[in-house]
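Sample intake sheet
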Amino acid sequence: MTSVWGIHNDALTTELIEGNFISIGWDEVGDISKIGPDRTALKAALAGAYPEAKRGSIPVQAGILRRFAFDIQVGDVVVAPYRPDRTINIGIATGPYQFLAGAPSHRHHRPVEWKRLGVPRPVFTQAALYEIGSAMTVFGIRNHPAEFLAVLRAEGDPEAAVNAAVQNTPPAEAEEAVDEPRVKRVNQYTRDFILEQLKAPNLTHQEFEEFTAVLLRSLGYQARVTPFSQDGGVDVVAHRDPLGVEPPLIKVQCKHHTGTISSPEVSQLEGTRAAGELAVFVTLGNYSKDAKSIERQKQGLRLLDGEAVVDLFLSGYAALPTEWRLRIPLTPLLVVNDGADD
């Protein structure tokens, strides 16, 4: 039976995709295959390699090493949250554990064939996102594997595949959490909650346009929605001066979905720009490589994905109208720092 595994890697970024692998640290332990899967032996190796480590952390780390080197099997599915753009990559383990002694860091490797790259987080349910927010480096996904398998196998809309998987999967009994709600996990949970509230059916497309205008106003712009269905691809216009007569005019196009925006859609917005005007594309999903290439080539064009929308929402939250703060309620909170045990 195929298992689904989650893995976090904050040390490496594009190397994982370009090299088709996953990796973990603990380099000083050496080749795990020579130690074997015995937990006692793994704990002894960790204690010897890291004598200053807290005793309580050693068993947890030993479990991570065992899972990575021995429990993950060829053909198993790997779910890897991707830190640079906060999307999710999904692949299949294609080979056994390897120890690359010559690598500068993260010498413990597993080869992976990446099947789905850059999947927006809003595609998945909040419960599934919370599960892969585990503070552990390597962990089994046992409560919501069907969602990630559905995206892996989807030929069309990944969100539709997830919705179908959720409807066809009986509720699972949640396992007891093995990690604590530290800063990173609480922060990511909040960001996922915001995106979830902005998705359909929570908002219509017209409401998303209104939200975009409100968001721009909270950041100090004057903004208004253009007449619906008569916008010619421009949904919101914004400017800095109160009268809206001083340049530059900012033309905004909104796409209220979590899919991938292609280059033709970006080119359509770019085609509406007159000399001296700026353009912004806003979506809850992400953009194709070709679309991002247009942004790099065109001065005055900005592409905002779901994560960028959340960044702007959080930075301007205090200035939002009461209606929107009630619709997406947040409150300041003091949370245990991630480095509290260091």
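Comment: The first strand starts at residue 4 and ends at 7. Residues 173-178 have pLDDT under 50 and may be disordered.
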